[in-house]
Amino acid sequence: MQAPRSAAVAETGQLGGRGNAAAVGDSSNDTKTHFRVCRFIIETGVKLGMRSVPVATACALYHKFFQTASLEVYEPYLVAMSCIYLAGKVEEQHLRTRDIINVCHRYFHPGRDPLQLDSKFWELRDSVVQCELLILRQLNFQVSFEHPHKYLLHYLLSVRCLLNRHAWSRTPIAETAWALLKDSYHGPVCVQHRPQHLALTALYLALHTYGVQVPRGEREWWQVLCEDVTRTQIEDIMTELLQLYDMEAKCT
Amino acid sequence: MDRDLLRQSVSYHGPSLFSLLKCEQSENPDFKQVVADLSKSVNQSDKDDDSPVVEQFIARKADLLFAPSWKSTTLVEEEWQEDLREPYAIMPPLEQFMEVSYEERRELFYRDVERGDLVIGRITSIRDFGFFVNLLCTAGDFERDIEDLEITGLCPVRDVPSTGNHDDPLSYYQIGDLIRAGVKDIDRYHEKLTISLYSSSLAPNLDRIKLGVISKEDLPLHYIRGEKVGSGNSDAYERLLDSSPGFSNPANVDVLLRKLGINDTRSPSLMRGLQSKHFIEDDFATAIRKKQSASWALKCVKAGVDHFKSGRHVDAMNEYNKALEIDTNNVEALVARGALYATKGSLMKAIDDFELALESCPTHRNAKKYLCQTLVERGGQLEEEEKLVTAEGLYKRAIALDDTFQEADEALQKLQMRIQKTLKLKAEEASREKEKQQTAETSAEKLRKILKEEKRIKKKRRRSDSSSVTSSSSESSSESSSPSSSRKKSKKRKHKRRRSSHGSKKRKRRISSQDNRTPEEEEEYPLPANTSASFMDQKQALAKLLAEEAEAEDGGKSHGKSRGRCDDDPFGHSPQAQSSKPRGQHDGPGVNGHKHRHKSDDSRSSRKESSHDFSRSRKDSSSSAYSEHSRKSDRPPRDESTQARGQGSSEVSRYDRRVSRGSDGSERRLSSGDGSRASEGDHKKDLPASLQDIFNQIAEFEKERKKK
Q1: Which of A47-56 are b and which e, b meaning 16 or more Cβ less than 10 Å from the residue's Cβ?
Q2: B45 touches chain A (CB under 8 A)
Q3: Which chain A residues in 197-216 lie under 8 Å from chain B, judged by CB atoms?
Q4: Residues A35 and A114 in one domain
């Protein structure tokens, strides 16, 4: 176990200096680091043309990994790259290591030419592949997640029927909810709650933002959609979500 | 910023949001525009509780949330159809789970139903003006729980399509039938609904759906599922969702994204750093990969070039192929490989590679240079293989690419000269063949003319009363073919003029006027019409006939050709034709046959005689303009006759020469004509004995006259 870890860290030390800030064991720093790395994952996902669900899987893998692992031992950016690679395999959107390495290299050295097919490239590739195995072992090979995305989409469909079609078409509820859900992956909130709750919160927040009036019955619409959630819970999750936006200002 | 949205949001949250907005969005110019409007609507808040965090969030992100570009969903107006395969979980209307009250549901239904929606109901009563339907559920995308709302719709008779039996269309329907119909009209105030069974009443994306009586199986899935759900179970929705097969479909996310119109790969984010404007195209994976492939391929190419220079062609080729595997259509690799092919001698492959390279990079200097050289070399190869046109094409391409390439120019010029030479040779061959063909043609034409002449002669026989009939018939029979129709026609017309009405004069004049136009007119010898002389002309004409026959067999080309053309053409321009016309004037009725037998020799030979005749018969000449003109033109042609004769002799066969010699002197001619006749044994066999008698008589007659 020791050898691959150190080798991985040593090789990816070349990637850039950002990860070295993780040497400080402050939790708030850790949070910031995680935020930055997740931002890195999401950005890379966009550049690689990944769909929302594989990106979510990559972030979830990352968060889960560092729930049990320490930032001092593992280079977070390498872990992130491997998470992306692994997520592509899990969610059936296969990515080439060459593309991942290219994009990441450019992320850290903007404007430079792409890597040549030299020893450096091969070392990086080897480290990504080895790290992938590492992550699998750390997570006990449990790498499939139930994501809130499909819940959210079904909820959106149901709620759409409740509303007047014109009100629906002029209010960007779907986009906002989707954006909120994707942004929630910057933090560990995605792995700390049930996917239904996350989806519900995103939808709730979207409707709330635009002041949309949903008809009321014996039960609230969100109660129907997810039985075991209370309004407080929703609000808590909402708060966590919104904190992420605040963190953006602090980190970047 | 979308004012309506903002207003809605602010009125929902109250003045606290408004103040926050003002605070956060103070620099936003879009916000400033709407702030005035908003201040009016801020009075109360519709919501129950305060949520400062949310309000803070809204205020901060207002520029994104309320921007018009934020609304990025694209609603796809596809054909709606019942998704029986269930790509996603189809759920009953939420109203049902929420247990929304009767009044509210009814109110909401009448608020939201629109023309063109699909509804399903059961027939409750049938009247003569239509039938009433109690609505069970809605179909299409508009899902509501209305079964117990007792909403009735009327379907009037005119909206019931006939079944084609000429019966009352309503008789097809019974109470209790399940009907699927489209909403045609809504009276929201009175809560009345009119439905129709015609597809035209439906919205465009629904109009494929069959309306009318349906069975239980056709009921929408969400309704069927809704029936199974018992009330009171709070987690019914969840359980139903999890158990639906569509929920386990791994692709349901994509299907639903498409249905809702959300774009997945570039979907918007509320994070500042993730806005699309921050992404540079060059940072994307595909762009980087391309650049990288190009540079990797270049390395291989360099290695390959080294191999090539050291003579290791196989290694070089391997390197080039490797480079092209890494980056197909890499310009440098293609050029290098092309050069290698050219060196090895596979010129076509080299050309292909260069062309491909130039497609991607038209300004590549080396590619152009090598391509020109290879094209010229290949052109040389093709030239040796006698594929001149292809070679020419290649040279032209080389020049088009690089017009300073001298070798290509030189090669092209050489080639073009060569092509011209071959073309010339071919042209000569072709013309020679044509001549041969012409004679064949003229034989056919002559035959045709013979036949025509026979017909004409038969007609004239009825009119005429002289022995010329026989002579003409003999002539016509003796003719092989004679192209000069003008001569024939002029003779015919002169004959007609003499014998028939005045109208023929006009024709002749017409012909003569046309003839006047021709430059060869001067060679004419217009002979005045004279019955006596016509017999002499007849003789001459006969001699000509003989000569012509001889010539025709020998295949006199151009003259024969021209004669052939003149067959039915009154505008015949041949000198022979024109010169023969004067003779035609002299001809009696019997010489119709002469008209088609004009050869240069004959005409020339007869010209001399005709000039004699002309001088003799000047007084007797007709008053036709043609003859007058021909008088004038007589002198110069005399001079030219010798020339013409000279020309003619070069083209003529020995038979002709004999004939022309024979016809030099009028008396001499007769005898020589006989002699020629004798010598031309074959040709003479067509002449009947009676004709010979006539000739003898003529000869005697002439002698007598001359003595006088």
Answers
A1: bbebbbbbbb
A2: no
A3: 205, 208-213, 215-216
A4: yes
Indicate whether A190 and A209 sit together in one domain.
Answer: yes
Q: Taking chain A, what is the end-to-end CA distance rounded to the nearest angstrom?
A: 34
Band (B230; pLDDT cuts 50, 70, 90): low
Q: Which residues of A touch B70 (CB under 8 A)?
A: 172, 175-176
C-beta atoms of A114 and B295 within 8 A? yes
Crossing angle for the helix pair B52-65 and A195-210, nearest 10 degrees? Answer: 70
Element (H, E) at B179: strand B178-187
Same domain (yes/no): A130, A41: yes
Asked if the C-beta of B268 comes within 8 angstroms of chain A's C-beta atoms, the answer is yes
Mutate to test the interface with B, among A46, A59, A186, A251 (most CBs of B within 10 A): A46
Q: Where are the beta strands (DSSP E) in A101-172?
A: none
Mutate to test the interface with B, among A102, A164, A171 (most CBs of B within 10 A): A102
Q: Give the range of the structural domain holding residue A83, as residue numbers without chain letter.
A: 30-139
pLDDT digits (tens, 9 = 90+) for B297-355: 888 999 999 998 898 889 999 989 999 898 888 888 888 998 899 888 888 888 888 88
Say if the Cβ atoms of A176 and B65 lie within 8 Å: yes
- Least Cα separation, residue B97 to chain A (angstroms): 6
**Overall number of domains in chain A:** 2
Residue B165 · residue B79 · CB < 8 Å: no
Question: Which of B11, B144, B238 is facing A227, going by the closest CB pair?
Answer: B238
Query: Does residue A58 belong to any structural domain of this protein?
Result: yes
**Considering Cα of B329, then B332, then B336, then B338, what sign does the dihedral take?**
positive
CATH number at residue A122: 1.10.472.10
Do A106 and A134 share a structural domain? yes
- A14: in domain: no
Give the ipTM of the model, two decimals please. 0.85
